[in-house]
Write a structure and sequence with these properties.
Chain A: Pathway: Amino-acid biosynthesis; L-histidine biosynthesis; L-histidine from 5-phospho-alpha-D-ribose 1-diphosphate: step 5/9. The complex is a heterodimer of chains A (257) and B (198). By secondary structure, chain A is of the alpha/beta class. Chain A is built from 11 helices and 12 strands. The radius of gyration of chain A is 17 Å and the shape is globular. The chains are: A alpha/beta (257), B alpha/beta (198). Chains A and B meet through helix 3 and helix 4 of A and helix 1, strand 8, strand 9 and helix 6 of B.
Amino acid sequence: MLAKRLIPCLDVRDGKVVKGVQFRNHEIIGDIVPLAQRYAEAGADELVFYDITASSDGRVVDKSWVRRIAEVIDIPFCVAGGIKSVADAGKILEMGADKVSINSPALSNPQLIADLNATFGQQCVVIGIDSFFDVASGQYQVYQFTGDETRTQKTQWLTRDWVSEVQRLGAGEIVLNCMNQDGVRQGYDIAQLKTIRDLCKVPLIASGGAGTMQHFTEVFQQADVDGALAASVFHKGIIQISELKAKLIADGISIRP
Amino acid sequence: MAELVIVDTGCANISSVYFAVKRLGTEPVISREADVIKAASRVIVPGVGSAKAAMANLAERELIATLQSLTQPVLGICLGMQMLTAHSMEGDVACLGLIPGEVAPLNAAGLRLPHMGWNTLHSISSHPIMQGFTEQDYLYFVHSFAVVPSQYSLAQCHYGSDFAAVIGKDNVAGAQFHPERSGKVGARLLQNFLEWQL
């Protein structure tokens, strides 16, 4: 039976893993390769590396760390951040990444999704979506350039419409980052994820809000996501992956031991 | 003569296959030269993407006849495995025809596609490359098309329906999952392949 996936996310800046709260105040957590290796050995099912500076500041970002990760890691990993073209994606995949995740550039140029699909296949095209609940309108809206507070902006897309559009264009997987929950460890946004799950025919990964092991049980049982992504609870040692997997198995969730 | 050659199929997962085999202590050569591939003691055919594009790549590199003529152990991975069969419905394209079989859209019975993630095997044969595998092992899959089970299946996987997870005939074998991305269990398949005596 297909297992639900636990996916530590490592935010990368200048080759170091960092973590902020609600996308802000980034602190350095450690070097990228040993951290990646530690997570693979601890039982992570997949890793995501978000180069958080890349989308925002326009300079050419050194991605040689992708190759260094590929050399040592024997589980799948995805690279996100600053991939603006088919050529950018090709370089990342060539260095050994299994998937690329596109966020802001897909909003600026939706055709990129179709081009990536046609060139590399649906399986390696992940679309990251930063979704924020707007209290005034009562709607979930898509935000762009969230890696840089000064450039973060609301787009014209409602989250549910963008989820449908990216699937139409050929996305192979969607990572839904619920910004209101990010970094505050109060639990995944179950209500939003359930709504999106109904519209999402490709694998859906929950992101933002994991604080306790019970939060993972809830998101798998109540929102039926295919994977759960988390950062700070793993980086700070609040949750051990082995203990989390044991609990999820005890809760009857299909998990790779 | 190179011990192990990874065929440069022009697909994206060549680096990860290269590194995975290297972690086992061998020094593979990546090549698109017919002479180098023919002289290798073992050959890996990697592949991701679409069957039509990948077969077109092989044709453009004039490698189809070379791959069809190999007598040493050959391992296809993911799309590389699908290309070992006779035909793929993905783009309605003739494949290498090394193992009888057909690649068809995976009948996921309403489950999400692509079939992406870690899954288990069943109907595991005693073929040398399946040595040490059990139904409790998880392997990493990413695909929407699959090889229909047949007498050449060495292991099957279930996702909505059964499909061939590993196939083999004579000197040729293939795995639908990604051994290079399946942790220690995946490394076991690669190690079995390196030790496979015909």
